[in-house]
């Protein structure tokens, strides 16, 4: 079975996806590609569907993405609509360098993370790798 | 919900974020769009290839304790993507 089929790209032809974790159906059906060949971006999106589950339940109305971008950079994105109906979002970039992990928030400079935040990030990366390896690339 | 982005941190695991009052959003972004926006913002802010204050390149091959592990994870994920795309 191809990876595309595992991801449910032909779900309507072959029945329920055998994918081990329940992916958001909107992701499966919104893909523009229905061929067996996935792009690098398709895989990154699939990884993010797994990555966003790492941090527990997502608050109602929130959209979350957590994924490894190209190279050694990780991205956490969250968007929501506040009580006034205004769309809000934040995108945090984590750049892994030999000197440490540097966090970047929009409009601010890079900041080296340390202590518990660093430990949490490392745990997130380990968990992410385990999830994608066992559920997407196994 | 108000957030101070400068103090925004990755949350503790399995700790749901507070806020049941938020209105559902229709915003759906793909990782590609998010990544492109990050690159665009970095370009605007002139932060590409940034020299980070306080980091000393001592030429001794210094690596912080998790670097090798994180680098290996990144490389393995890239290999998986390459094999499957």
Average pLDDT of chain A? 78
Cα(first) to Cα(last) distance of chain B is 39 Å
What does the overall shape of chain B look like? flat
**How many distinct helices of chain B?**
2
- How many beta-strand elements of chain A? 5
C-alpha termini separation of chain A: 12 Å
State the total count of DSSP E strands of chain B. 0
Quick structural gist:
The complex is a heterodimer of chains A (138) and B (85). Chain A is built from 5 helices and 5 strands; from the N terminus they run H-H-H-H-E-E-E-E-E-H.
Features:
heterodimer, A: 138 residues, alpha+beta, 34% helix, disordered N terminus, B: mainly alpha, 2 helices
Can you characterise this structure?
The complex is a heterodimer of chains A (138) and B (85). Chain A is α+β, with helices and mostly antiparallel strands and 138 residues long. Chain A has a domain at 58-135. Chain A is 34% helix and 24% strand. Chain B has 85 residues and is mainly α. Chain B has a domain at 58-85. The longest helix of chain B is centred in the C-terminal third of the chain and has 18 residues, at 67-84. The N and C termini of chain B lie far apart (39 Å). At the A-B interface, helix 4, strand 1, strand 2, strand 3 and strand 4 of A face helix 1 and helix 2 of B.
